[in-house]
Amino acid sequence: MSRPIPQYLPGKPLRFIDELQGDPIGMFMNMLEAHGDLCEVKVGHLQGLFVFEASAVERVLVGNYKNYKTKESRSYGPLQKFLGEGLVTSEGELHLSQRRMLQPAFHRDRIAGFFDTMLQHANQLVAQWRPASVSGDFVDVSERICEMTLAIIGETMFDADLRPDAARIASAVRAVASRFHWTSTTLLPLAELWPTEKNLEARRAKAFLDEQVDALIERRRQRPPGDDLLGLLLDANQAQQTSTSVMRDEVLSMVVAGHETTAVELGWILWLLSTHPEVLEQVEAELDAVLGDAPITLEKTRELPVLTRTLQEVLRLYPAVWALAREAEAADELCGFPIAAGSRVFFSPFAVHRNPKYWDNPEGFDPDRFLPERSVGRPKFAYFPFSGGQRKCIGDQFTMLELTTVLATVLRAYRFELKEGTEPVPSPNVTLPMRDPLPMRLIPR
Q1: Checking DSSP bridges between strand 337-339 and strand 332-334, what pairing results, if any?
Q2: CATH number for the domain including 95?
Q3: Within a domain: residue 51?
Q4: How far apart are CA 9 and CA 3, in angstroms?
Q5: What pLDDT is stored for residue 225 in this prediction?
Q6: How far apart are CA 125 and CA 144, in angstroms?
Q7: Fewer Cβ in 10 A, N or C end of the chain?
Q8: Is 308 part of a structural domain of the chain?
Q9: How many CA atoms lie within 13 A of 206 on its CB side?
């Protein structure tokens, strides 16, 4: 006889809805503390299973991945309305064909070729901050970082300069993303169609993003063929290997994912380093020893183990994509519990990365937990900041190179001092940005 699945807040639907809409991250952590590996919620159409055990996550993402769909998952409906049929949300053969088509743009050698562009924009960022470092004024570092990551993704993937519209693009992404979270958690029918101020703002923002995508495609059509991502998409479209609508969706997905995730992580990294001087000193000592005063090179970015562990730890604590969902096509078993066909399965890198079953002092900031001797025996899917399996983020190596290059550049130039009284709070949407600006003083090194 199978065991009954533990129920989270049974008979308390209003409390669950309040947690889901008000503090979804806290909700996941409450579930983990109360039930451990897995629990179930039954509240109207929000019935679902919440998984926190590494082997179960691995089964969903790898071992039995064909059984766990995204497109059919009702939880992805609002995201599909935002991103359409791009690589992030597509399913089955369409997803596989898109991934094969786009893979050359993310080949290891090609990503290495992006280093000079990343370094150029990182140096420009250092120069933009120089007046504030002299005056001692606080600046919102997150705003400039977002503009920089947009510029990098535009130049490397689309052969385009997105800087003139960077602020509006970033603002539009945030506006639509905030509606994604709300419409995916509310119990109100067709809530995204109501003519509320926030919904109207999101529609205007989506229209602006669509205009930007169309302009990107049209400008790229006027230039010679190339092996940038948009060039590959245009070639596939001309050869009728992909439709125009899917091409547009793919561009939008890459604009959003290609800049937002990296910008989010850079903000969390600078905050954590500013509040953990002992880690910052280790990072600075490594940069001084490896780089000295010489120009940064691609080869040198591969000789920074302390910085790499620091990035891994920030991605553990604040994974840019903090929650995922799937829908079981057929019956299965997870953690010894029966999973019915049609069940929605939710799992959160944010929560699994804080599961005390796998991590000592899970809330602490400790990059050395990624030392080889301290990683022995840790399950592979106790840590999955870029998801995993067939749907692992195609740009994971791109992101790590960009993070390493930018941080090596800016941390060699400045120390970042957080404005007193500032306490960053996560704002869970599609990604995990900070809710408010990040005011910091830049102190020249």
Answers
A1: antiparallel
A2: 1.10.630.10
A3: yes
A4: 18
A5: 76
A6: 7
A7: N
A8: yes
A9: 20
